Amino acid sequence: MKKHILAAVAVSTLFVACTKSSTTEKTENPDGSVTTTTTTEIGTGLDTSKIDKAKSDIKNTVDNAGDKIENTAEKAKEDINTAGKNIKDEAHKVGKDLRSGAQDVSKDVKDAAAKGAQKVEDGAKKLKEDLKK
């Protein structure tokens, strides 16, 4: 957008600076008739070195703006990549924690089931002995 605005300013300056001059010359012919000649000159009225300098300044400004945009985009890309890597690492860590927790719960359930089974067996032995008496 800025590039277009600067280009429009440069072109409008060039059009405003253009001048148009005309001269009219009347010449009397030997037979007594009059011939009118009009000459029109169109000139810029500006020094071409100033125009070249202005074009160069505009180009440099546009190039600098483009570089800033590219740098900002590159930094944003790097930030997004870093955030993605951090999310991936955290998700991996959470997955490990869940796996570890599930293994712990599984072990606890097995231990509780084994103890419960042992108590049932002990109770059955005791009942069997009581019935024998």
What order do the helices and strands come in, and which of them pair?
Elements: H1 2-17, E1 19-28, E2 34-43, H2 48-132
Antiparallel strand pairs: 1-2
Helix pairs in contact: 1-2
What can you see in these coordinates?
It is a single chain. With 133 residues, this protein is an alpha+beta fold. Helix content is 76%, strand content 15%. It has helices at 2-17, 48-132, and strands at residues 19-28, 34-43. Strands 1-2 form a two-stranded antiparallel ribbon. The longest helix has 85 residues, at 48-132. The model has no long low-confidence stretch (mean pLDDT 81).
Tally of DSSP helical segments: 2
Given as residue ranges, the uncertain stretches (5+ residues, pLDDT < 50) are none
Radius of gyration, whole Å: 47 Å
Q: Give the overall form.
A: rod-shaped
Query: In percent, how helical is the residue content?
Result: over 70%
Cα(first) to Cα(last) distance is: 103 Å
Estimated structural class: alpha+beta
Brief description of this entry?
The chain is of the alpha+beta class and 133 residues long. The chain is 76% helix and 15% strand.
